[in-house]
Amino acid sequence: MTSKEKPTVVWFQAITCNGNTHSLLSANSSRLELFFNSFNLIYHPSLTIEKTLDDILNQKEQIDFLLIEGAITSNEKFFSISNDTTFNLLNKLALKSKYIIAVGSCASNGGIHTKFTQNNDIQGINDSIDKQTINKLEHSIINLTGCPVHPEWILQTLFSLRDYGKMNLDEEKRPKELYSSLAHHGCTRNEYFEWKVEGAFGEKEGCLFYDQGCRGPMTHSSCNKILWNDISSKTRVGMPCIGCTESDFPRENMLETKKNIGIPQDVPIGISKRAYLSLAGIAKTFKIDRLNKKLMD
């Protein structure tokens, strides 16, 4: 590939609700324009018409970036647009690709399909690509977990790989620059969290951790640093974080906090349960009139 050539991008859809495609199209307009000016999206089943998936499979040219949206299965009931299983198509495309990026929780680890269906054959791409194929890959598979993925995470990953050739990944193969912080970081409700002032679903003030099931303190995500639509996030509009970037997503009863004897079952990452309970007990002895007044206004 010469410096004048745009890196090629193939977007392969498997078992998906198309949420990550919608997310990409909701990106900042200038960033999305920069993406189309900097990359050659040669195949997307909803956005391109020049080539079919069979054309991509039959071409001799290598794919620079293969992006997969959705979970994978070898079940013939889930034929794709190319009349083959998503498992077979994924493995054929993987052998032709320089970088492979799982876009969304379903592609990364199976997501809702693996968690709430009886079909054990539906998995993420990491468990679906043949081991021999993985050994032949030049680069590690990159997981962009989320339901859906923030559009900027997709674009930032593509530009970083194009410009630097690699990214530092965490234990779940997610880019550290995007997933090393927690959704809790940058949350505008942190003072309420510190003083244990609980709010309610949809309210502008108050913490959503103690009763509403917010997973911000234990979810690796930059949602409150890289804002959605450049202006907001779930917690900023009164919606609890549901932990969609974590491998245990989705969980049952996501909008309530599981407790034992009135104490949250899960505590924030990086602190022991004993230490957390000690701090929480001390904080509850204080009544911060300013915060409670704002909650009532």
UniProtKB/TrEMBL annotation:
<dbReference type="InterPro" id="IPR006137">
    <property type="entry name" value="NADH_UbQ_OxRdtase-like_20kDa"/>
</dbReference>
<feature type="domain" description="NADH:ubiquinone oxidoreductase-like 20kDa subunit">
    <location>
        <begin position="17"/>
        <end position="160"/>
    </location>
</feature>
<keyword id="KW-0479">Metal-binding</keyword>
<feature type="binding site">
    <location>
        <position position="147"/>
    </location>
    <ligand>
        <name>[4Fe-4S] cluster 1</name>
    </ligand>
</feature>
<dbReference type="GO" id="GO:0051539">
    <property type="term" value="F:4 iron, 4 sulfur cluster binding"/>
</dbReference>
<keyword id="KW-0411">Iron-sulfur</keyword>
<dbReference type="InterPro" id="IPR027394">
    <property type="entry name" value="Cytochrome-c3_hydrogenase_C"/>
</dbReference>
<feature type="binding site">
    <location>
        <position position="17"/>
    </location>
    <ligand>
        <name>[4Fe-4S] cluster 1</name>
    </ligand>
</feature>
<feature type="binding site">
    <location>
        <position position="207"/>
    </location>
    <ligand>
        <name>[4Fe-4S] cluster 2</name>
    </ligand>
</feature>
<keyword id="KW-0004">4Fe-4S</keyword>
<dbReference type="Pfam" id="PF14720">
    <property type="entry name" value="NiFe_hyd_SSU_C"/>
</dbReference>
<feature type="binding site">
    <location>
        <position position="244"/>
    </location>
    <ligand>
        <name>[3Fe-4S] cluster</name>
    </ligand>
</feature>
<feature type="binding site">
    <location>
        <position position="241"/>
    </location>
    <ligand>
        <name>[3Fe-4S] cluster</name>
    </ligand>
</feature>
<dbReference type="Pfam" id="PF01058">
    <property type="entry name" value="Oxidored_q6"/>
</dbReference>
<feature type="binding site">
    <location>
        <position position="223"/>
    </location>
    <ligand>
        <name>[3Fe-4S] cluster</name>
    </ligand>
</feature>
<dbReference type="GO" id="GO:0009375">
    <property type="term" value="C:ferredoxin hydrogenase complex"/>
</dbReference>
<keyword id="KW-0003">3Fe-4S</keyword>
<feature type="binding site">
    <location>
        <position position="187"/>
    </location>
    <ligand>
        <name>[4Fe-4S] cluster 2</name>
    </ligand>
</feature>
<dbReference type="GO" id="GO:0016020">
    <property type="term" value="C:membrane"/>
</dbReference>
<dbReference type="GO" id="GO:0044569">
    <property type="term" value="C:[Ni-Fe] hydrogenase complex"/>
</dbReference>
<keyword id="KW-0408">Iron</keyword>
<feature type="binding site">
    <location>
        <position position="106"/>
    </location>
    <ligand>
        <name>[4Fe-4S] cluster 1</name>
    </ligand>
</feature>
<comment type="similarity">
    <text>Belongs to the [NiFe]/[NiFeSe] hydrogenase small subunit family.</text>
</comment>
<dbReference type="InterPro" id="IPR037024">
    <property type="entry name" value="NiFe_Hase_small_N_sf"/>
</dbReference>
<comment type="subunit">
    <text>Heterodimer of a large and a small subunit.</text>
</comment>
<feature type="binding site">
    <location>
        <position position="184"/>
    </location>
    <ligand>
        <name>[4Fe-4S] cluster 2</name>
    </ligand>
</feature>
<dbReference type="InterPro" id="IPR037148">
    <property type="entry name" value="NiFe-Hase_small_C_sf"/>
</dbReference>
<dbReference type="GO" id="GO:0009061">
    <property type="term" value="P:anaerobic respiration"/>
</dbReference>
<dbReference type="GO" id="GO:0008901">
    <property type="term" value="F:ferredoxin hydrogenase activity"/>
</dbReference>
<keyword id="KW-0560">Oxidoreductase</keyword>
<dbReference type="GO" id="GO:0009055">
    <property type="term" value="F:electron transfer activity"/>
</dbReference>
<feature type="domain" description="Cytochrome-c3 hydrogenase C-terminal">
    <location>
        <begin position="179"/>
        <end position="253"/>
    </location>
</feature>
<dbReference type="GO" id="GO:0051538">
    <property type="term" value="F:3 iron, 4 sulfur cluster binding"/>
</dbReference>
<feature type="binding site">
    <location>
        <position position="214"/>
    </location>
    <ligand>
        <name>[4Fe-4S] cluster 2</name>
    </ligand>
</feature>
<dbReference type="GO" id="GO:0046872">
    <property type="term" value="F:metal ion binding"/>
</dbReference>
<protein>
    <submittedName>
        <fullName>[Ni-Fe] hydrogenase, small subunit</fullName>
    </submittedName>
</protein>
<dbReference type="GO" id="GO:0030313">
    <property type="term" value="C:cell envelope"/>
</dbReference>
<keyword id="KW-0732">Signal</keyword>
<dbReference type="InterPro" id="IPR001821">
    <property type="entry name" value="NiFe_hydrogenase_ssu"/>
</dbReference>
